[in-house]
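Onboarding guide, step 5: your first structure request.
Type a short instruction followed by the sequence, for example:

Predict the 3D structure of this protein.
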Amino acid sequence: MSDVPKTHPRYLSLTLRDTIVAAVEQGITSIHGLIAHGRGEAFDYLIGEETQPFAIEAIHAAAVMLLSAEHPIISVNGNVAALAPEGLIELGRVLNAPLEVNIFHTETGREERIRDHLLKYGAPDVLMPTTEAQLSYIDSNRKFVHPEGIFKADVVFVPLEDGDRCEALQKMGKNVVTVDLNPMSRTAKQASITIVDNVVRALPLLCEKIPELSSDATTAQDTLKRYSNAAVLQQALQHISRSGDGN
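The system replies with structure tokens like these:
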């Protein structure tokens, strides 16, 4: 870890950066994950490094969609496993949904290291990709999934996602909830619900919202009907534009 003092105005951002670097050294995150994290960090800076109202709206809708799912699944890559293992595990607990490892870059043993990392933090079980079930419309390593996980799921939570798999999941008739700091990415535009926020902030809020909605199914469904992902992304872009003007 660096020697950045806690009083530094960007202390959290810099410590998250250190977390990703450490995860690369541990073989959990791909070296390519450093680039992805840096891109996200830039967009986080543009939204003020705070959870904005458009993210709260998306979190509410995401909670409804995940709570209403028959077979929700939480997809995990190296970056999100490094940044928010406790949040992933808590989301799995409140949804009674499994975690499943699914990555693009397949360095030897990295999938197993991600699983072991999650188990170390208290995950009850972690599904692993297999050759028994494969996604359609995609040719990368991400096509290999668990038959009782992503392959079977009707709603897939895919934080820090690649656009190709998001598109494939949608074509297969699955709803996709994603966390993506870039409102212009392919994933953000194609997902059913996009939370434009840092995953370390969004996950605890999502975990808090789900139990709140459990007792009010009618109101929850009305929320989902009113939700527009395109409108939320437009709000995020407008916020970024205003921040560029110094407002």
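Each response can be followed by summary notes, for example: The beta strands are 72-76, 99-101, 126-127, 133-134, 144-145, 155-157, 175-179, 193-195.
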